[in-house]
């Protein structure tokens, strides 16, 4: 087992909307671990790449939810049927219909430049090289796979860093829309954070960390500031408890 590979968990959702989605991600982790244990590093890489693409899909989904107009603009150039399907998507996994190299262009919406996009699309090329029956085994040792995982995690961390502004934007909207207990989905602040922010928003631990570090003082004049403080405290509690479990 390559221990550092597990760092990807922090970038994936804490909670999934459906049992099927969670089962799929668990299956990929099992495939990665089993193939590592049996020395089938090439297949382990394929499973890890698929997990990485899940991260990318969830990242794009958050852009779609928080900045829908910007997302819609990015679909210019897609055929009309695909554009319609992506705009109407109800799951991040809908993005699997887009060629992976094209999927890797969506991070331009969060200010990833063309140089970075080129690096991201190389991950797809590496996946293609390993997935096709070309007579080559590209990962024959754990050390080779570990090097690729480190490269992948660097890219994931970079994309996540570019996501901070949009995550905080969505969080600020959540706080203001959830400030009144009589108007929000759940009266209890903990339930509201768990069900609406984390579960419906596909929030990862790193996403929540961005939220926890946001200074809510800008809402000090809000008539329901006490409730905003309570919601924010719940978010901080999630980050603290998840980090304690990971330690």
Structure notes:
- This protein is an all-alpha fold and 247 residues long.
- The longest helix is centred in the first third of the chain and has 26 residues, at 41-66.
- It is built from eleven helices and no strands.
- It is globular and about 65 Å long.
- It has helices at 19-37, 41-66, 68-74, 80-87, 100-103, 114-131, 142-162, 164-177, 189-199, 205-212, 225-246.
Which properties best describe this structure?
247 residues, mainly alpha, 11 helices, globular
Concise structural overview:
This protein has eleven helices and no strands. The protein is mainly α.
Count of helical stretches:
11
Helicity, as a percent range: 55-70%
Q: Which stretches of 5+ consecutive residues score pLDDT under 50? A: none
Q: Return Rg in Å.
A: 19 Å
Average pLDDT:
88
Structural class, from helix and strand content? mainly alpha
Largest sheet: none
* Element order: H for helix, E for strand: HHHHHHHHHHH
The coarse overall form would be globular
Present the secondary structure layout.
Layout: H1 19-37, H2 41-66, H3 68-74, H4 80-87, H5 100-103, H6 114-131, H7 142-162, H8 164-177, H9 189-199, H10 205-212, H11 225-246
Helix pairs in contact: 1-2, 2-3, 2-6, 2-7, 2-8, 9-11, 10-11
